[in-house]
Amino acid sequence: MKKKVISALLCVAMVSSMLIGCGSKTEPAETPAETEAEAEAPAEAEAPAEEASAEGGSVYYLNFKPEQADQWVALAEKYTEETGVQVDVVTAASGTYESTLKSEIAKTDAPTLFQVNGPVGLATWKDYCYDLSGSELYKNVKSDDFVLKDGDAVKGIAYVIETYGIIYNKSIMADYLTKDYAVVSDVSEINSFEQLKAVAESIQANKEDLGVEGAFTSAGMDSSSDWRFKTHLANLPIYYEYEGNGYSSVEAIQGTYLDNYHQIWDLYINNATCAPTLLSSKTGDEAEAEFALGEAVFFQNGTWEYGNLINAGMTDDDLGMLPIYIGVDGEENQGLCTGSENYWCVNSQASEADIQATLDFLAWVITSDEGRNAMANEMGFLTPFSTFDDGYVAENALIAAADEYIAAGKKSVAWCFPTMPSETWKNGVGSALTEYAAGTGNWDAVVTAFVDGWAAEYEAANN
Q1: Residues 137 and 262 reside in one and the same domain
Q2: Which range marks the domain in which residue 115 is found?
Q3: Fewer C-beta within 10 Å: the chain N or C terminus?
Q4: How many structural domains does the chain have?
Q5: Which DSSP string do the residues of 254-300 spell out, in sequence order?
Q6: What pLDDT is attached to residue 307?
Q7: Taking the alpha carbons of 25, 31, 33, 37 in that order, is the dihedral positive or negative?
């Protein structure tokens, strides 16, 4: 138990310092161009008095995370059975959350609970965000580093801290390490882009002998998968540019590390289970299946994938995770990418009864045995709430890998992608990456989408 608590505190301490380094200092840009109507959003409703009653109220949670959809529905049913309060959970399809929220929020029975991805998302939705400063949720969050504020008002609270990198199949890697053609003698030697490249190319060249289809899973660029590369992979060059210049958000990105982005993308698409020309139609489910079936050794993804991989037949002994190395000086001291883009917000435009019902539901989720067990053990969440320290710390192989890098003194990579200026910007980068992979576009188009697109979208959002 003591080890669990120390592990959780290490994660919280690390993420706290990280978020300080990558939190927006300037007025955040508005989020996606999908949400152009938000400028006319009604003013925030007054917070209900403390004696507000949940009687007659209900909860509608618009869930962001498809991989935990079933668990949220089951938890909602338990709460309804226990309290009689109706809780409905609707999960947006992958890559459609903003457009779904925009559509649902305009309805009479709008979501009472939704989420934003960080400062940029809050800029769009803050008029719909109830002040949580007096809530049980806020009283139990460990640090304001996990909170989104508008002035003194608490508008959003992170509910999960996550980590991503390059998940690898330990069993296949163990087999590879016995081969004469192996270029390392232990996985721990993979601590730079050059080492990662050498290993991946060695696996690709000997894939028949290893019984795999490729070193990497397909880098699918349909909407269920492209976020891994136009957002999560793109975080690396943004992070290093922010670090090198000492800033935490920017009106115009310089693209200092886009050559590094280029070489990691080339490594992914040229050493994969399929030809680069096929990536435009490849899905997230296909990449997951390729990895779970042992057809690929490496799979860029995060701790949220743990449950899916276990359900597909893998075990903790099969799973490890490496940092995403892109060839930056000093990256041997780099850890995994850790942070959050999942902030709960309560709809301030809902009725007082629905607001109170939603606050009561959230309080139950983070304090009851049923809620804490579901989040920690069924959903696999590492949370920022003190109520989880006593026996409800998520344990799985991917979180353990993150803990190991922290314990070894490696510097985690902050999640800077919530400062990306818009969804339109991400889509522009994604389209350019896809065309480059297909051979119908060149890398200069990726650079243009990244640099010029950033400046244009920031300007559009702020003016």
Answers
A1: no
A2: 31-161+340-389
A3: C
A4: 2
A5: --TTHHHHHHHHHHHHHSBSS-GGGGGG--HHHHHHHHHTTSEEEEE
A6: 87
A7: negative
